Amino acid sequence: MSLAAPATVTLHVLLFARYAELLGQDTLTVTLPAPATVGDLIARVRAEPGGTGLPARVLAAVNLVQASDATPLAEADEVALLPPLAGG
Amino acid sequence: MSLAAPATVTLHVLLFARYAELLGQDTLTVTLPAPATVGDLIARVRAEPGGTGLPARVLAAVNLVQASDATPLAEADEVALLPPLAGG
Amino acid sequence: MKWPSSRRSRAAEPVSNPVARLVLGPIDAAALAAEVARPDRGGVVSFVGLVRDHHGGRTVIRLEYSAYAPMAEAELARIVSEAGERWPAIVAAEHRLGSLAIGDAAVAVVAAAAHRGDAFEACRHVIEQIKARVPIWKREYYADGSVAWVDPTAAAGAAPAAAGQGRSR
Amino acid sequence: MKWPSSRRSRAAEPVSNPVARLVLGPIDAAALAAEVARPDRGGVVSFVGLVRDHHGGRTVIRLEYSAYAPMAEAELARIVSEAGERWPAIVAAEHRLGSLAIGDAAVAVVAAAAHRGDAFEACRHVIEQIKARVPIWKREYYADGSVAWVDPTAAAGAAPAAAGQGRSR
Question: Does this model's pTM top 0.80?
């Protein structure tokens, strides 16, 4: 990493349905050391109050598109943690 | 065949769609030597005016149920000759 | 406790009168669906066949369906009943007869089931069986003034069989 | 002469705005079908999902759908567009959100195509993709006063995951 790279990324995290209930809120702002991935963010949310209730596998979306744990995160990305989908 | 068996069967024949056009009528009454089958009846209809226009394979129904050429015919059966089906 | 009595009684309902009709007026697929949809049959699949504006490269302006009505009704009812035995689904079907305009619904099939897979399969099966077994005939009237009986058994892509009058090919 | 220009021009129509909507009021599947049915798309297949009155052996009295709306809308549009590329069919889909009663339509998918096989396949594919990809959640309210978030990934036949309040098992 060059000296000019920011040392952290700050992310807007959206929680829905059962996950919002578990965490007691539907939005979080999380700052992580850079570079950060979706997996890093989920690990951090697990450490929040109520976060231990999250299942082993958590589906996530970054900027409205489904992501994997390895997806890199950039400053101000919108990350959504999605409980098991139940549409239809 | 016993002496009491009738020597002929008389059948009501219904013609539809293109077949009615070919034969110029939509009903025929046909008397055939007994015992008679659907195949016998179709051969007889081919001999009617316009009957040579019938295709090699003619679909038939006896008393509202699809039949084969080997299906036996009884007195007063309703036999329908069905052009290629085009419902739906 | 897993199968409360209210559910069991619904599943055991007799299907004494299959909904299978020849109709002379417009088909209302939504009304047909309402006849079979129930809260314990949450997946409802419908097929509607509309009169197309072309066939074999020619422009169709209207058509007429005719039938061997007593057999067509009996066969339609048999098809619907058979589907209800083969799948855990309730099926309803209507076929219109008489003169139809472009875009009119000629046939509608609705299948309702607890599981959508059963509803899709039953609906598809019934429309295929209707086309294969129900004695109904279709006469197409073309923009060029010609008329033809439709023969789906003719080679794919071939023009309809000639009706013998005013055909311009 | 086999493909008159009128047909070609229709087939080339741009599908610039996929019909893919989240709605808060009742779904009208017939109106949705009317948006995609055309005389050159004579086979119209519809799927409607109704709110069921039971789940996992418990009596459901109503439910609520919620969504990550911006993503749900985008994903629904992607699914409909993808189906239109994979099959020669036009597809429309609506999903309802908010509070629904037993028997209400929660989702409707309509596929219209020249050939019924394409319409059946496109319709089936789109409803499967909606269930797999669109971020929508369902909360069921039971006759015994309990409430649960539905988890379709839970073992088949298992009761819904507890919501943690007033559950009586």
Answer: yes
